[in-house]
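During the first year of the project, the team set up a workflow for recording each protein of interest as an amino acid sequence followed immediately by a discrete structure-token representation. This format lets reviewers and collaborators read both layers of information side by side without switching files. As required by the reporting guidelines, we include two representative entries from the current panel. The first entry is reproduced here exactly as it appears in our internal archive.
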Amino acid sequence: MGRALNNLDGLLQMPSGCGEQNMIILAPNIYILQYLEGTAQLTPTIRQTATGYLQSGYQGQLNYRHSDGSYSTFGYDASNTWLTTFVMRSFGLARRFIFIDPSVLQSAQDWLISKQGSDGCFMQEGTLYHIDMKGGVGDNVTMTGYVVASLLEMGVLVTDPVITNALSCLRPVVGKLGNTYTT
């Protein structure tokens, strides 16, 4: 493990591919940058390489952005709730290292909020082709938890009606969950 931690910069990659593939490569670059910065191992050379990759991945991901702020795998297919949440969350983290247009973040957030049902739950829309990407998010409960966590990370207040409505969707199932990831 020590060798891997000492050579994290070797794990940095240039994002490419469709909307899903691009994000699969872009997101780890953000976490590597955070770790190297947090442990005082981030050199100017590594920062320059990593931020270049982030900028390229950011620009590439905009090709899969719909006019309503949502994202899809190929850009011409249906908007995807999970992918839009992942992009918003990742771009929110990346803005610490590169410029992310605030309107790009806001439109993704607005689109997600518009997908909240009257019961407070968020439904998965669109097709995610790379199933491993979504981890344990596979139903309305996990989708709602994922969206809520992401919105909170973006700075939406816990007292915001979107969050309180989503929590009303989640409260009845707490204690009845059999899946550790969902819990």
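The second entry, processed by the same pipeline in the following quarter, appears below.
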Amino acid sequence: MKNKRVITCALTGAIHIPSMSPYLPITIEEIIRSGVEAAEAGGAVLHIHARIPETGEPTNDPELIGKIVSGIRKESNVVLCVTTGGKLGSSTSERLASIPVLHPELASCNAGSFNFNVSGIAQKIKNPKYDWEIPYVEKTYDNIFSNTFKGIEEYILTMNEHNTKPEFEVYDVGMINNISFFVNKGIIKGPVYIQFVMGIAGGIPATVENLVFLLNTTKNALGNNFIWSVGVAGKAQFELTTVAMILGGNVRVGLEDNLYLGKGQLAKSNAETVQKIKGIAESLGYEAATPDEARRMLGIKM
């Protein structure tokens, strides 16, 4: 597996609003088709959010998420990672609702609280498609993405109960200490899977220096008991995911994190983002892991 790299594709998320791109998948059918295409392009893991089909507004509804999961599962063996980030401002119970119902192989587990701010999006949208969009992003100027120690423990224990492996989302370096705390407490089963999420206002900036800092800090805290990946919001995505692969890490792309393939060039599908990072990987001598290879690499029960 030395030259294998796991490509995760985050399909739609809960941050980008429909007015930002006509290619952002919104309906259940669009998200399913986008996910299957991304898997066929080389994605081994799909990160799943749902939206209200009529408006594109993010939702935690387990029924809608379940329809997406079952729809993709009928057509692909890809690993599915269900979000517990969900819609901004949701309660812990709302964010966890899908795990006991769907028993996904992976689920996101946000590793700490921080000021999650994407309010700048509002200034770029002149004619919003839906009334909810501008207020939704504007309110993040006064938003704390709350993930307390009590809450994180509830996420971990719920995932353990339902045979779901946590994918720890690390937005800043202090969150590594939070993960170490729960490893020492004995409730996290190794190897620990960490997704460094960089470039969100309020989190760690997306630079090569900061990526190396995150990686070294994690090695000091966890030794060799972890596997890691990098997801980057915005234009530094392909630069830093390339560096991550060289450093031995895995990568996350997709329209949740970045709507563009290059400067001024909107990605027309999630598959295009997977194809681009897969091409970069192959040019460096790496291979995209298959879903079953990803399961072995990430320590997911098969």
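For the second entry, the following points were noted during internal review. The chain has a mean pLDDT of 96. The first strand starts at residue 4 and ends at 5. Both points are flagged for discussion at the upcoming steering committee meeting.
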